Amino acid sequence: MEQIVNKSLLNATCDANDDAIAVINPATEQVVAYIPSISSSEILKLVEKSKQAQKLWQQKTAAERSKVLETWYQLMMDNADDLARIMTLEQGKPLAESKGEVNYGASFLKWFAEEGKRTYGEVIPEPASSKRIMTIRQPVGVAAAITPWNFPIAMITRKAAPALAAGCSFMVKPANQTPLSAYATAELAYQAGLPRDLLIVVNNHSSVAVGDIFCTHDDIKKLSFTGSTEVGRHLIKQSAETIKRTSMELGGNAPFIVFDDANIDDAVEGAIASKFRNAGQTCVCANRFYVQDAVYDEFVEKFTQAVAKLKVGDGLEEGVTIGPLVDSRAKESVMGYISTAIEQGAKVAMGGQGLDGLFVEPTVLTDVTQDMDIVQTELFGPVAPIVRFSDDQELVEKANDTIYGLASYFYTGSIPRAFHIAEQLEYGMVGINEGLISTEVAPFGGVKQSGFGREGAKQGIDEYLNIKYMCFGGL
């Protein structure tokens, strides 16, 4: 590791010991580094430090906070190659994708550096001549976040940037699989001038122990979580005791729909980008494909040909487009879904095999039906199950037949159909003739059991602000 990246970005690593957390490269299954496990008692002390730092930070002007975020953004861009390499080493995604994530993650710093200057209040027409009414927006206080392993930088900056811009302090528990990206990104924030007690990264062998503190501590006023719906339900219940503000970006089961009037070549390109990015390990990637009868065979043929060109391997190797799954449990889960689908009648158009280590062949399944397990669950892997459909109303019912409502995609050449279908899909985000929809300028989030709250866009900073109403009388 020391020979590959700037050592100053990895100050949080430690020597191997009984209490250290081992960080594993999923491509080689070898230890990359060790990080310290922070005890619950120490985390409690850090909450107090975060609280005191926040009181000083909120007194800074929006412009002063903005300047620090802008500097942090520039440092991330200056160190993009090192950050990307760290990410690939601990997470496994191809280096080109890691570089893309660094740029995406940094974009939130730049965006919210500006949005922090626009947290306007209001002057409200008074109900009586002797009164004046106005509102201001103030930071909620200490904000905490629990972030996943699949986007270890972007899922932090998408939360930290609006929190810090609003005047909050920020504590984050990154996934134990990918803590190095978090520590390296935080180190650049400190170099940008952010006080260390304002941005605190904590890891513990027990994610539950950290979650308990974040949910139940009175001084933590806001919790943001990205992860599974199952864990999200638990965190919401825990947070209810302190009436804590929460935002949840939870599981997804995104439909990717190809209508008979779509440009099939464009649909194939969008499907590849949506499904196989990060080896299919994203909450917004296409999980189940619905293709209309008239174009089913053409789409399957062209899609399978495109999938066959994907190269599986270590993300540091040139030309690799599909990296490993994150760990053995992930691989076992994906292979289990493939096996069950075949038992239930699906046909393998290509792939379908597990490879050495944590790798899985990019897989296309045909003759898939709505009732199969692989259609009804969130599938984190490079597997594309394709369902045939006939009419639009049938399609909408199938696409909405899930507890999830995060992202959805469809391709059509008809403007009336585009509006009609987009309005009927029960999802927080809809990609219309587009397979990549994530951007800092648009609100990211879901409906139903995919969660609530929005990240990015102008709405993202609202999650970290309270509205205070002030009534002046006797005028």
TrEMBL record:
<dbReference type="InterPro" id="IPR016161">
    <property type="entry name" value="Ald_DH/histidinol_DH"/>
</dbReference>
<dbReference type="GO" id="GO:0016491">
    <property type="term" value="F:oxidoreductase activity"/>
</dbReference>
<dbReference type="InterPro" id="IPR010102">
    <property type="entry name" value="Succ_semiAld_DH"/>
</dbReference>
<protein>
    <submittedName>
        <fullName>NAD-dependent succinate-semialdehyde dehydrogenase</fullName>
        <ecNumber>1.2.1.-</ecNumber>
    </submittedName>
</protein>
<feature type="active site">
    <location>
        <position position="249"/>
    </location>
</feature>
<dbReference type="Pfam" id="PF00171">
    <property type="entry name" value="Aldedh"/>
</dbReference>
<dbReference type="InterPro" id="IPR029510">
    <property type="entry name" value="Ald_DH_CS_GLU"/>
</dbReference>
<dbReference type="InterPro" id="IPR016160">
    <property type="entry name" value="Ald_DH_CS_CYS"/>
</dbReference>
<comment type="similarity">
    <text>Belongs to the aldehyde dehydrogenase family.</text>
</comment>
<dbReference type="InterPro" id="IPR050740">
    <property type="entry name" value="Aldehyde_DH_Superfamily"/>
</dbReference>
<dbReference type="InterPro" id="IPR016162">
    <property type="entry name" value="Ald_DH_N"/>
</dbReference>
<keyword id="KW-0560">Oxidoreductase</keyword>
<dbReference type="InterPro" id="IPR016163">
    <property type="entry name" value="Ald_DH_C"/>
</dbReference>
<dbReference type="InterPro" id="IPR015590">
    <property type="entry name" value="Aldehyde_DH_dom"/>
</dbReference>
<feature type="domain" description="Aldehyde dehydrogenase">
    <location>
        <begin position="17"/>
        <end position="469"/>
    </location>
</feature>
